[in-house]
Every structure is written in structure tokens, then in C-alpha cells.
Amino acid sequence: MKVSLTRRYRFAASHRLHTPRLSESENQRVYGKCSNPYGHGHNYSVEVTVSGPIDPATGMIANLAQLDPYVETRILEAFDQKYLNEQVPEFAPEKSLVPTTENLCRVIFQRLKGFPLAHLDRVRIEETSNNSFEIEESLDAAA
Amino acid sequence: MIRITRKVEFSAAHFYHNPNFSPEENLRLFGKCNNPHGHGHNYTLEVTIAGEPDPTTGMVLDLKELKEILQTEVIDRMDHRHLNYEVPELAGQIPTCENIAALIWKLLLPRITRGQLDRVRLYESPDLFVDCTASNSNHNGARA
Ligand SMILES: [Zn+2]
Q1: Which chain A residues touch B94 with a CB distance below 8 Å?
Q2: Global pTM?
Q3: Total number of domains constituting chain A
Q4: What is the pLDDT of residues A57-104, one digit of tens each?
Q5: Inter-chain contact A7–B102, Cβ cutoff 8 Å?
Q6: Which of A40, A50, A46 minimizes the C-alpha distance to A10?
Q7: CA B33 to ligand 1 centroid distance, Å
Q8: Nearest to residue A107, comparing CAs of A21, A13, A2?
């Protein structure tokens, strides 16, 4: 039996899906409304899954008193109420990484994978209640 | 292979305290959850069984049967109970979501005789859940 713990966090941010690698009309065709130059936003819900042995002294894989602030400083403070295209270094224009939620999964996974107290298994993001995206360490070369 | 999942809910009280630690250490480790008067949660349990549907019945495992197993192993034991005092299987353990889910896994494992116990997912709140999966499961990483 393997045990994992999943905690859900929330943040709101704006983004624009647009890449200089494509022409204006191709951007329009690929991203549609999401390419609107003024951007738009989502209430993102992020599930962070960690695994490891249950510490018999605490009964926990990872104490939320440690996981919560780790996610707070690396994700929520960096992304909440921000414009992802300009205020998150990984999506800075010179990186030409489009802030789709696929790429956001990878960025968040990279930012969290150094968590010292348990193993990061998975990051799952709901961009809206209808669209979700997930990255799992064993299934993604970039994880 | 098909996976089937049954959901049940129960409500229980608990608090976190390790008698080997000082009161200050307990408060530092467990925060508000250390309150000796306890607090409670509405737990949501999802139990997933994996297997091949029986060629005659078309079922992996009759969900009525699974419902009865969950009633006797989980609901009768834990619903409207104080997990620190009324569940002997948790004696000496901190009744965290991890330990409760692991106990439910252990209780169910010998009871599932058709299909295979694939996952136990226990929500303590909509924002916190624990998964127990079979070591050979293709959940979490080794997906086919
Ligand atoms: Zn609690």
C-alpha cells in the first residue's frame, strides 16, 4: 500500500495566450478569445500531492504547518492576483513560454519539487470547473 | 480491467496529541488540532475496486455487497464516534487522515474477495484528502 496526501490551494491570476512564434492571424486561430491583447483571468484551484511514509510520531506524511507555507511562498504569493505573462519570471516574454495551464503545471511542479519533507507526486490544476490539467512525476519528462 | 467506486460519508470527532511530547511541543506540531476537547469533520470516503466484470452478471463486484462491507467495516465503526476514544484499531496512533485511510485500507483488504481493492480516498474536507493505493496499482504513476 502506498499513501499520498493531497491538499488544494486557490489563486486568481490573469494571462494571455499568445506566442511571437506565430503570426497574429495564427494566434487568433489557435487561441481565439484567449489571445485578446488585454488578457483575461481564472480562479485556479491547485491540488498538490505528496507521498512518503507516515511519521508514527505525528501520524502524517507531511505536516500542513510546513506544506502550507511552502506553497504559500513559492506559489500563492508569486501567482495570486498577478498577470502571469509579465509577473512570473518563467513566463517572461524572452522565455516565449505561453502561460497555458499545461505549462503552468510544469512551472508549479518545478517550484514545489524541492519540498524537503515528502515526495512531490503530482500537481493538478483546475482552470475552470470544466477544465483540469495534471502533471505526474513518473509520466512527464519535464517533471 | 474496470474500476468501480462507491462513495460514503461519515462524521467523527478527533484531536491530535502525542503523549510522548510536552504540551508545548504538541501545540507546536498540531496547532489548533491539539485542542483536547476535539473537533470534527464530515469525512467522505471513496473506495475503488478494480477487476474484470463477471461474464454472467456484468459486474466487477455487486455494489450492494460493497455497500454492506463499508457499512460494517467503516460506518458502524467510525460514524458519530470519537476517533481517539472509540476506535480501538486507532489506539496509540494520531487519528490523522493518513492513519484513518490506512486503517480503512487494512479493514477492507481481506473483505474484498472479487476484484481487487485499488484505491481508498478519504476526504477530511474538500481541500484535503489522502489516497491509499495498491503497490502494484496503475494509479499514481504507473498508469497503463
Ligand atoms: Zn481535524
Answers
A1: 58-60
A2: 0.91
A3: 1
A4: 999 999 999 999 999 999 999 999 999 999 999 999 889 899 999 999
A5: no
A6: A46
A7: 6
A8: A13
